[in-house]
Specification:
The complex is a heterodimer of chains A (369) and B (258). Chain A contains 10 helices and 18 strands. Chain A is elongated and about 65 Å long. In chain A, helix 5 packs across helix 6. Chain B is an alpha/beta fold and 258 residues long.
Chain lengths: 369, 258
Amino acid sequence: MSSSFLYKSKSLLSHCKLGRMHDKRTIPMRFIFQKNHASTLVIAEPSSSSSSSSEAMSSLMPATLSAISAAQKLHSGPITILSDKAIDTSSLPSAVTSVLHIGASSSGTPDKDKSLCGSLLVAENVSAHIQQAQTLYSFSHIIAPATKFGSNILPRAAAILGMSPITDIIEILSNDTFVRPIYAGNALAKVQATQNVKLLSVRTTAFEKAAVDGSPAATVINLMEEKQVPPPQTLTEFVKENVSSSDRPDLATANVVISGGRGIKSAENFALLESLADKLGGAVGASRAAVDAGYAPNDLQVGQTGKCVAPELYIACGISGAIQHLSGMKDSKTIVAINSDRDAPIFQVADYGLVDDLFKAVPELTRQL
Amino acid sequence: MKILVGVKRVVDYAVKVRVGSHGVELKNVKMSLNPFCEIAVEEAVRLKENKGAGVSEIVALSIGPKQCQETLRTALAMGCDRGIHVQTDLRGDYMELQSDAVAKLFQKIIEEKEKDADLVLVGKQSIDSDCGHVGPMLAGYMSWPQATFAAKIDVEGNGLLVERETDQGTETIRIPKLPAVISCDLRLNEPRYATLPNIMKAKKKKIDTFQAEDFGIDLEPKNKVLEVFEPPARKEGIFVDDVNQLIDKLRNEAGVIP
């Protein structure tokens, strides 16, 4: 940060409300955000419920790290995170200059109430805080990961701000020109935003995660103590969440995914894929056909409806390769297909195809590894 | 309860699209009711069949060229009571008519024609533009509660209990009071096939037509599509003979296993 931003005058600093001020070099927010200068607000993906909601501070999710590296491609201006909880500055990429949070109180008391967390994260509340942040700091860009969370809140925030959002971006060409897939990824559209605030979401598999090298000078601000705090919303109430927990890596970020289709024939047979996944330290996925047939739960579904994955290695077993499934995995670095039907469309995207009975091939593969 | 359901006419999901000089080729291509809109229609009809929900009327709304009348007839045959066609020849597959204009047209229809609409059901996304914006944007413009990616909808008192898909599984949210906007996901229901008698009955149901330009909305795309192109083709793969060869390739050629 250039030294022109360093103001040591006490009277100036006293105008600024800061969550943490132990570092003299902490930069007052009002001097970073000058109108008409490029600056980006990154909406952080909430931590999954498996990480303790009783932590006062948290670290950033992989989806947020991808959104931050996407933000770095927009312009060289400051990057701010909007999070439900305060973030420890050692858990931030150095590119992040400030954190705005809407949950933990300024005294750092842990928030043990999961229901409160869920309520904070409903679209009506998050988009109201995005509006608050925009009123206070006039960002030129607001960017979220294109997860179900981001897809729920970003369009509502865009409507409230009078903007037309561009979502599921896979490439950033400049601060106003982007590429996004249409028609299940069978066509790509190069699109230019013309409005003065760009509301964007990015496909996390298209952007490398920003390195968490720490940002000790970053400002951490509790938006609940700033001006323009939105009134508590009463439109929706969070009741509960239903989360499947697993020791396996998360499907969306795993380096290896073993996926099963209709050819698996039963839920019990999915154990074959689980053994292979365990050997390779990977996650298990499923095609829509397998989920519809009850062989796997829907949060394993990969495809146009379901998760979009791009692991180093994707092994598709008994999956025919419908367009909708391909759109969710064709950006994988290496694709292997195991199917007894040589004409299955999946072989057209596979790097390595094995025409064989998966009930022979998969156990043998597991054994040999 | 009065329900407004959005139904979009899109390229059929089984069609392998081709990219032409002005976007995806639509000439002579099979068009159908967007699968997620179909799920929304089915849910509206099920809510009406559930007498406890007190649904008085289901109105289907479609925005697009004159062939949208066919899309509306499908929705009517599934059980909607009447249709509204907002006519425009602007392309709705991201090229010309974009989500902000569509959501604003929905808003105008609600505010000017269907003031007593209690629930708007839309599909979670259309399979051409793949945006998924109209539901949450409409909720934002109207300051109404929203529930996206709905997997289950139950009537509870004056409101709704909705189970919606999240990145980790599902969550349940309560909408204490209507009106509201809900976008429908895959697992919500399995749509019915319209029976022949219902298809015949649908021919007599009313469809009102309006012109999109008459609502005072700026229909120009705020995000200009500069180019549409095909994604780069993957390098052609090979068939391996057996598991040993596969392991060899993965280990020594692709370098993806230790």
